[in-house]
Design goal:
The strands form 3 sheets. Strands 1, 2, 3, 4, 7, 10, 11, 12, 13 and 14 form a 10-stranded mixed beta sheet that branches. Strands 5-6 form a two-stranded antiparallel ribbon. Helices cover 21% and strands 34% of the residues. The protein is an alpha+beta fold.
């Protein structure tokens, strides 16, 4: 089978340490196909579900960008960073006292529903044509317009050594690391995101995704059988 004939949606479990664009670049090189894109960017430190569109299926990206997303993560209490995650510069440290999982669960419930979130400076969001992280790396901070988001679920299920595991289900455009930072502010001890895995995008699950290692070890023929046809994702009349 010719890789150039591939069309469809491929679910990839992105590893830590590479960008979403890196995944696309690796697939283009492996398959010899230029027409490959992705839906929903993941930070390099994050792992999990990345929707890859191959061939003519790249045309349906606009119908997938608004899908809600689910994340499983870990936050570290007592330390806040400029990027709101473990890769940033430490801004403040505080002793964590008298914080129980019951307190965390109760506070998490207050973050549910409609709200506005200010995008972090360390993000790829563009303001006046420039990516915010490019300004942040120069030490600049500018005003950002709050973005409307909705959080359906924010569950804390474990607390040990100042690290709390959580699950979030939210609308597109939600910065989970900023949610964690805001959570730490409310706790008055600070917090940052130390681990994150995207588990779902709409009805798609990371449990059905292939790792990059598996993709590299899979033949083109076998890979073609793992592709989800575009007509199973969006109405056929809007595909081509």
């Amino acid at each position: 089978m010719n890789a150039g004939n591939l069309d469809g949606v491929l679910l990839v479990n992105k590893p830590r340490g590479i960008t979403s664009h890196d995944v696309v670049a690796q697939l283009r090189s492996l398959l010899g196909i230029k027409k490959i894109g992705h839906v929903g960017t993941l930070d390099p430190m994050a792992t999990g579900l990345l929707i890859i569109l191959i061939g003519r299926t790249t045309k349906i990206s606009q119908y997938l960008v608004d899908l809600s997303k689910g994340y499983a993560g870990t936050m570290t209490l007592g330390i806040s960073t400029d990027s709101h995650d473990m890769e940033g510069m430490i801004l403040e440290t505080h002793e964590v006292k008298n914080i129980t999982i019951e307190i965390l669960k109760s506070l998490a419930n207050e973050f549910l529903g409609d709200q506005y979130q200010i995008p972090p400076m360390f993000s790829a969001k563009k303001v006046n044509g420039q990516k915010l992280y490019e300004l942040a790396r120069k030490g600049r901070t500018i005003d950002r317009e709050p973005q409307f988001i909705h959080i359906d679920t924010f569950d804390i299920d474990n607390l040990h050594d100042n690290k709390a595991n959580f699950f979030v289900h939210c609308t597109k455009g939600t910065y989970v690391r900023t949610l964690v930072n805001d959570f730490g502010i409310r706790l008055k001890c600070g917090a940052h995101l130390s681990q994150l895995c995207r588990t779902t995008i709409g009805d798609f699950s990371v449990n059905d995704a292939l790792t990059m290692e598996e993709i590299n070890q899979t033949s083109i023929f076998e890979l073609s059988k793992r592709l989800i046809p575009a007509y199973d994702v969006v109405p056929s009349q809007i595909i081509w």
